[in-house]
From TrEMBL:
GO terms for cellular component: plasma membrane. Belongs to the ABC transporter superfamily. Drug exporter-2 (TC 3.A.1.117) family. This is ABC transporter ATP-binding protein. One of its GO terms (molecular function) is ATP binding. Keywords: ATP-binding, Nucleotide-binding, Transport. SMART domains: AAA. Residues 7-237 form the ABC transporter domain. It comes from Tatumella citrea. The lineage of its organism: Bacteria, Pseudomonadati, Pseudomonadota, Gammaproteobacteria, Enterobacterales.
Length: 243
């Protein structure tokens, strides 16, 4: 992948009832990156993510994707640009099989003649080919999350936005999810919002730390976890395990 700018925010922020949830944030994401957004509760990282994905409209500044202004657009409009979005609210069909869920995701994005091959490829990516006929409601939490990732991957988006993809998972599921996200990053640029620092250590290339609605620090995992300001604002005496 080249390393040209894929996504950029310019002085982007949002206020709710006079409270600056996110201040004027300048943020640059290059093609091929796997960027993690972290910070304490109320730091603004989740709201910032929601502005990137169209769930929240900024009240100031802009978000640009490939130099095209996308701030203020709806999530489905943003998805049409080649951006895959996974929020904390599940978007799977519990009464359908794994295959049927992937088919539903592909139906409006791919030619009918290409769907079966695309599903088989994605099932290989998420390592669920052996469960293709299983009903979603019968699967473990982690497996359902992987199906949802597969539904995003079916159209091979250029950018993937993931909101707490490891939430509620077992340690084994977390590790497998980390490997899956690194596999996704071989083809797509990825942004992950997460609070599980061990999970972050498994995947992070570059980390952006939010605090009080603005970017506090940015760098590698080692750089931000050794940053005194980050320790004071977020990490405290947290024991950081490096994967």
């Amino acid at each position: 992948m080249s390393h040209s700018v894929l996504l950029e925010t310019r002085k982007m922020g949002v206020s709710f009832g006079g409270v600056h949830a996110v201040k004027e944030v300048d943020f640059v994401l290059n093609e091929g990156e796997l960027r993690c957004l972290i910070g304490p509760n109320g730091a603004g990282k989740s709201t910032f993510f929601k502005m990137l994905s169209g769930q929240v409209s900024p009240t100031r500044g802009q978000c640009l994707y490939r130099n095209q202004v996308i701030s203020g657009r709806k999530p489905w409009e943003i998805a049409r640009l080649g951006i895959g979005i996974k929020t904390q609210v599940p978007s799977v069909f519990e009464g359908l099989t794994v295959w049927q869920n992937l088919w539903q995701a592909a139906a409006n994005k791919l030619a009918s003649s290409a769907i079966d091959e695309a599903i088989l490829e994605v099932l290989g990516d998420i390592d669920l080919l052996h469960l293709k006929d299983a009903v979603l409601s019968e699967l473990a939490h982690g497996q359902r999350q992987w199906v949802e990732l597969g539904m995003i991957l079916i159209s091979r988006p250029q950018l993937v936005l993931l909101d707490e993809p490891a939430a509620g998972m077992t340690h084994h599921e977390v590790r497998k999810t980390a490997e899956l996200i690194k596999t996704i990053n071989q083809q797509s640029t990825v942004v992950v919002v997460e609070h599980d620092m061990e999970f972050i250590s498994m995947i992070a290339q570059k980390v952006t730390v939010f605090n009080q609605g603005e970017v506090l620090a940015e760098g590698t995992f080692a750089e931000v976890t050794s940053n005194q300001l980050v320790k004071e604002a977020y990490l405290g005496n947290m024991e950081i395990k490096h994967a």
